[in-house]
Amino acid sequence: LIAVLALGCADPIGAGIKAANASRVFLAEGSAWLAAAHRRDRDAAVERARTPEEARALAAEVHAAYRPLWDAYDDARAAQLAAGAALEAAIAAEAAGLAPSLGRVTAALAEAARAYAALESALVAFRARVLQRASWERSARPDPVSVAGRPILVGGRR
Amino acid sequence: MSPLEVIALVAETFGPTIARALEETVRTERPDLLPPPPARLDREIEDEDDAVIARRFGRK
Considering the entire predicted model, what is its pTM? Predict the structure, then answer.
């Protein structure tokens, strides 16, 4: 997406700003999504607990599961800040009548794209783990459909 | 695929908010750099544990 947006513009600094902006919009949305999912899972864990001690232990498990995602988010954000600094330096050089360092801008944007891709991979791996765990939990429970021998509605599934 | 076609695809996939922000940034000749994304929020979420647990078990 970033490459396509950059190709649509002849001005390399302008293209860099657009690429960085697109990335910043996605990261801001990603942060909001991640925070909502993290809070929802923590609240659900606390709700399941029977004692405050169990609630604390379950909440700690949720936090541990989300930590790698926040680490990846933090890396992507840091790379995005570095890309922003390279762009601002290029803009300042251009305004001063100097040749902007487009190599630095390109390298910083490439690093930001790499960090963003790593965040996406972490999110995909996390989702796969969640789905796998849900599948294990389903298979560990006796299925009332087969136990009863007649169709019963279970969690929206017949 | 043109940038605007990409935006249409983004709107379909991610929703109108992201698509509008992208459209604005593509249409402007040289936009300003948007503010950086927010810092990580996991510590803040962890700090809420005591209050969430107190609400669930009804004590302060």
Answer: 0.72
